[in-house]
Amino acid sequence: MVAAASVVVAAGTVSGVISATGDGRDAPEARPVPSASPSLVPLPAVPSASPSATVSASPSVRPERAGAPASASPRVKRKTVEAAATRLYRHPASRVLDWVRAHPGDPRRPVIESRIADRPAAVWFADWSPDTVTARVRAVTSGGAAQGRVPVVVPYAIPGRDCGGHSEGGAPDLDAYDDWIDRFAAGLGSGEVVVILEPDSVAQADCLSAGQRAERFASLARAGRLFKAANPRARVYYDAGHSGWHTPAKQADLLRQAGAASPTSSDGVFSNVSNFHGTADEIAYDRAVLDALGGTGLGAVIDTSRNGNGAPADGAWCDPAGRRLGRAPTLSTGESRIDAYLWVKLPGESDGCEGAPGTFSPSYAYDLAR
Q1: Tens digits of residue pLDDT in 210-242
Q2: Residues annotated as region Disordered (predicted)?
């Protein structure tokens, strides 16, 4: 097993993230991630394959971090997603949109604009800025609500992030993190929103001691409860790694400890964030994780942003050649227990080889899109 390394570049409301890994089932193969989000149009299938202001008050009652949450609770029957909620929100600030606006005459622009910039993607909150996070989250969620669309937000500030690798950062300790989560929750609004809670926080927890892991998982369970209490229409998903990492049984055990089986904190799991594993592999893996987790009402979401050709055979993780866009983002997959295909990673943002980590590379974006 080879330890993972990564790099975070924070910018405004979002950030680019990368991480290198080696071989072995128990190590993540990639940890590249973007920042803002791309645009929104009708969602045809792709061949397969912020503003800052004074922060508003945090919730006055702050649940304590108890010990690691209990295992699965009985779940109510899963609700059918309304047709109006199958449309995802394109946040109007992203590096790809900046490039498109600044290069009207570039011959690559039409392809990049139509296939990447005009698609919805997640908005990351990876920088430690407690004084502005409420206003910044609210700007995204209110923007989605105004259009009747569903935003995807990614809180990424857990202490010990990336196990001390290049993506280290975030909150200085769990008490500060819990306070940041309070402020994040205050910006979630009342409309539908998808929350991708802390990529790698569960799958990459083996580097922590048993006590540290229990404390982290208690904070994650608390975060899910707080998000769903603040906005009952929020759908919160927990980190399931990807199909090339842990076995479904091991991942489900970790997820259960983090509160992912409880209906008061979780709607299910996410997988393949910033990775390249094929959609069919992720569907099978996620269903196996859900079966092992024991939650009949839980679902899964899959990052399909760059998995159109599957993962590189050689395990390359840094802007690997030959990759393609995956399935278009949608909340209507036609697959049982698969709630969404999302672009959590913004295609074209570099892992660190085509450009500085988190920066937009038009050549890489063009190669992915054409």
Answers
A1: 999 999 999 999 999 999 999 999 999 999 999
A2: 18-79
